[in-house]
């Protein structure tokens, strides 16, 4: 009996030393279909890979490039999942991914990738596991999401056209918020960039206003993106209604100093030509291209 156990153990040890590397080309792929009524990526599909002996994640994605990885992360965010595992034949640039996600989501986010490498007894590479963990950098984000949903339920019903829904959201944010003038490098003002500060405390700057609009727009099933214009150090929203994609600047429609319930509509429901006609807004060609690309890919 002892000899039998000894030889069996030796055979298992040898088998491990000859373990073959994981080959992403040979792994079985299957589609993950996204429902047609999803807010982002409706009707599209992501690619899953079969499990393997190295990977401990329950779901393993295959991504070809940063665009694919952005879609995987956005899908996971929409499912309230903030850690994913993936395989790719390319090294990913997380700065590119984070920049795109910042236009799609109403929050600051931190992405951290951890890689675990598996080798055999001869130090030959068998597998590298790629895991990304995302962290929302707004402690009150979920509370703000609930507040956005509550307000939308009070303001909006299914009989309203999208244009009317957008107007109601625009007006509600302005009536219940006041713009706080501050310098960009004021560390005490960082909370003003969050949707939660606008929705829960009634104050903010352009980023916070735009993010609050995004949260309420999603609750109303209205496609909306954040527009970042570096030349102006300013942000607003790119929104879809019955007339197509429009620009809305909720911040500039809120009078400063605050005038209570007074609401301006100077930058509401404007097509692109009208929005930029006076040169009040500046948006360079690369920023335009990126925003429109994301609008097409994700909505």
What does this entry look like structurally?
- The strands form three sheets. This protein has a six-stranded mixed beta sheet. A three-stranded antiparallel beta sheet has the order 9-10-11, with helices on both faces. Strands 7-8 form a two-stranded parallel ribbon.
- The chain has helices at residues 2-17, 66-78, 94-104, 141-155, 162-175, 195-201, 206-219, 272-275, 285-298, and strands at 29-33, 45-49, 60-62, 83-87, 109-119, 125-136, 178-179, 203-204, 224-229, 234-241, 244-248.
- Helix 4 (141-155) packs across helix 6, helix 4 packs across helix 7 and helix 5 packs across helix 7.
- The chain is built from nine helices and eleven strands.
- Residues 1-16 have low confidence and may be disordered.
- The protein has 299 residues and is of the alpha+beta class.
The unreliable regions are 1-16
Structural class: alpha+beta
Tally of helical runs: 9
Q: Give the termini separation.
A: 66 Å
SS strand fraction: 15-25%
Major sheet summary line: 6 strands, mixed
Q: Would you count the extended β strands for me?
A: 11
Question: Strands of the largest sheet, in order across it?
Answer: 1-2-3-4-6-5
> How much helix, percentage-wise, in residues?
25-40%
Order of helices and strands: HEEEHEHEEHHEHEHEEEHH
Q: What Rg do the Cα atoms give?
A: 24 Å
Mean pLDDT: 91
């Amino acid at each position: 009996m002892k000899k039998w156990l000894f030889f069996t153990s030796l055979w298992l040890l040898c088998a491990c030393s000859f373990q073959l590397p994981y080959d992403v080309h040979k792994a079985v792929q299957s589609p993950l279909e996204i429902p047609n009524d999803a807010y982002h990526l409706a009707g599209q599909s992501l690619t899953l890979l079969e499990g393997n002996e190295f990977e401990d994640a329950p779901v393993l994605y295959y991504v070809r490039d940063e665009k694919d990885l952005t879609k995987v992360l956005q899908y996971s965010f929409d499912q309230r999942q903030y850690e994913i595992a993936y395989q790719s034949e390319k090294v990913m640039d997380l700065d590119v991914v984070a920049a795109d996600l910042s236009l799609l989501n109403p929050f600051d986010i931190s992405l951290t990738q951890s890689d675990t490498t598996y080798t055999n007894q001869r130090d030959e590479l068998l597998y590298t596991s790629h895991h990304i963990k995302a962290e929302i950098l707004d402690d009150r984000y979920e509370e703000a999401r609930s507040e956005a949903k509550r307000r939308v339920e009070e303001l909006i019903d299914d009989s309203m056209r999208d244009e009317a829904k957008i107007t109601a959201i625009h007006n509600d944010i302005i009536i219940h918020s006041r713009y706080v003038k501050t310098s960009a490098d004021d560390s005490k003002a960082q909370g003003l960039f969050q949707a939660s500060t606008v929705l829960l405390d009634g104050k903010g700057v352009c980023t916070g206003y735009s993010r609050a609009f995004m949260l309420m727009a999603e609750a109303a099933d209205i496609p909306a993106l954040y527009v970042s214009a570096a030349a102006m150090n300013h942000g607003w929203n790119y929104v879809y209604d019955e007339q197509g994609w429009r620009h809305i600047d909720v911040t500039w429609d809120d009078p400063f100093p605050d005038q209570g319930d007074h609401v301006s509509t100077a930058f509401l429901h404007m097509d692109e030509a009208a929005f930029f006609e006076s040169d009040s807004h500046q948006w360079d060609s690369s920023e335009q291209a990126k925003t429109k690309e994301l609008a097409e890919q994700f909505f």
